[in-house]
Sequence to fold (428 residues):
Amino acid sequence: MEKFEKSTIKDFENPACLNVYERSRLFNEFVQFNNEKHYNNYRIVTKFGTSPNPQVYNPYSGELKEMVSFVSNDYLGLTKHPRIINAGIEALKTYGSGAGSSPLIGGVIEIHEELDRELARFCKKEAAISFTSGYAANCGSLSVLMHKEDIALLDMGVHASVIEGCYKTNTKFFLHNDIKSLQHVLEQVSGNYRNIFIIVDGVYSQDGDISDLPAICKLAKEFGAFLVVDDAHGIGVVGKNGMGILDYYNCHDQVDLYTGTFSKSFGSVGGFVAGKAEIITYLKYMSDSNIFSAAATPQSVATVLEALHILKEETHWHKQLRDNIQYFKSGLETIGVDYLNSNSAIFPVMIRDERKTMEVGRLLLEKNIYANPILYPAVARKQTRIRMSLMATHTKDMLDYALNVLEDVLNSQDVKLRWVSGYLCMAI
Fold:
């Protein structure tokens, strides 16, 4: 098993000369190796769904324990909201458990149309189309809008669904949230392609920082580029009452396509794309992930509709989340944690060493803190971290406990602070 000491998941994607069974067998040995070291903090089973303090089955002992969880993207805690639950129940009673077919051939129920109209109003766009997941929304829209004559310029921090959606076209990456890098790439490609697409996140899922959207909008206009913003982690978190990154910067009219998911602040499942009416109509007839997939269940559609109402009417959830973010950020600064430039509900606790990151994850779990180690290939090998996501329903006592445990664990692993070029970093 020593052969796996320096291995990562990336090593098992396509190892040379191994057929699918041999590759799978080798990967299973790797999983077993990490299980024996208690490093496999993934696919852990909870008993009653998402919560700031769920009952979690310890993957190694099988013991059921209450933990403070920082792995959920249910930022506003809406999955357990009585209005959300009741909306789902009533939809089941009215429409049944499924749509029965794809949207193109009979799966559209009146509630689907209602959701698309409400989404368009919420996003301040002409029209919107919903998908069964945020992943499907990005893949299904980008893959039909761009082809070999076009090029996509991607921030290095964009979600995997964006990268997969660009498989039919040319791609170039620019440095994360680096406007000069984007301008340089734009100057290189300008005039060489039919369409230039700039694709960024509103809030980045690994670093938790916010896109410099005004500067990006300015460059998109200057170079005649089509601008796409994936705001999966921004809606419910940033902007007035959590209305999202476009509201935060007041740049609705400068973004061509606005995408997101319902699985985070909306407390449900699914995704959407909003934009000009003619683009949305094109997607309704051309997007593979929409026309060849069954339409979303009435239950999920109804819960999203109710979540849209809650975001407008119960603004205290967003206030609670922002209060928790500021409280936790202050605590991290007090104990000297490098969390990069996060200004959202996502805090990357930077470790910058793969094995030490897994060890920190193991120790946190032992002390009833459930948080995910983020390793290569999700991030660069020298950028490994523990990602901690906050919810509006975390109490101050939960956050205090997490901060105390985190300080003890980091100290036990000799994770120390140093200053490099004016930035606070972690040294090991």
In short: The domain at 316-427 is CATH 3.90.1150.10 (Aspartate Aminotransferase, domain 1).
